[in-house]
Design goal:
283 residues, two-stranded antiparallel ribbon, 9 helices, mainly alpha, single chain
């Protein structure tokens, strides 16, 4: 996050310099700010803690939902392979299921799904699907229709169909949960209040510290500002877990992992693993 907040840190360094030159005077008057700083720091700490917790809970829930997608997709594939006679439409169901996962990824990121869906569904099905808005739901409905067709053709009993349907319901719940997170951001008022409180504290900080830290005030203020502003920036980024930012969910790797798992169960050749790219990595 350091590169993205360098302008703010430079601004705080510039703001701290006049406090040293004027010995903490504002408009020529010495104003005691230690008590006010304590109040502002306490408020900003509580608001920042709430925002960080709320953002991480969204990130954590999003990861759990995608983990459930993996589990349910594996279970459904395994059940069809084990409980349905060979020679049925298991290949068609598997490709539709993989396409459903890719479609969900693109829905959450608001990107074009055609490059991923075309190899799985073919041009005709992809073009027909392009006219629908909730593509992942439409593809999951196709999976359910194919499973019902297995029972119609006496390839699966009603009990087995109910078992398959339970996994499809779990997939639907995960898709709905992801849509809920994507369509319900953290209220804007919390972000504005946190942003203003943090910057108010950082701007007032050098005038409250200059008597005790003197020429070290700018350096200390920049360091304290870095921790607060970076935490705010991280909270804002993590609160949107489906974006393509470096600290978000690695959906490319997760969707590929689900595809590889389904294909491996079917004994098919699996594509290469996608390794998440991180701009910085601690060693």
């Amino acid at each position: 996050m350091l590169q993205s907040i360098i302008p703010q840190l430079v601004f705080m360094g510039i703001v701290s310099s006049p406090a040293v030159l004027t010995q903490g005077r504002i408009f020529g008057e010495k104003i005691p700010l230690k008590g006010a700083l304590h109040i502002v720091r306490s408020r900003s700490r509580h608001i920042l803690a709430f925002r960080n917790n709320a953002s991480y809970e969204r990130f954590k829930e999003a990861r759990l939902l995608w983990g459930n997608l993996l589990i349910s997709a594996r279970s459904l594939t395994s059940q069809i392979l084990c409980y349905v006679p060979p020679g049925s439409d298991s290949t068609h169901i598997a490709r539709t299921l993989i396409a459903c996962i890719y479609a969900l990824k693109h829905e959450l990121r608001r990107t074009d799904p055609v490059p991923d869906l075309l190899p799985l569904l073919g041009r005709a099905r992809t073009e027909a699907l392009h006219r629908t808005f909730y593509k992942s739901t439409a593809l999951l409905n196709d999976v359910r229709r194919d499973v019902a067709d297995l029972q119609t053709r006496s390839l699966a009993s009603e009990t087995k169909r109910w078992m398959f349907d339970a996994q499809i319901n779990e997939l639907g719940k995960a898709i709905g949960g992801c849509e809920r997170i994507a369509s319900t951001p953290i209220p804007f008022s919390y972000s504005v209040l946190l942003h203003r409180t943090v910057y108010a504290y950082c701007i007032l900080l050098p005038f409250g510290l200059v008597d005790s830290t003197e020429f070290f005030t700018p350096l200390l203020c920049v360091f304290i500002s870095y921790t607060l502003i970076a935490l705010e920036a991280i909270a804002s980024e993590v609160a949107v877990p489906f974006s393509v930012a470096p600290n978000e969910l690695a959906l490319d790797a997760i969707t590929r992992n689900i595809e590889r798992s389904i294909l491996e169960l079917r004994g098919c050749k699996i594509p290469d693993e996608v390794v998440p790219v991180r701009p910085y990595q601690l060693t």
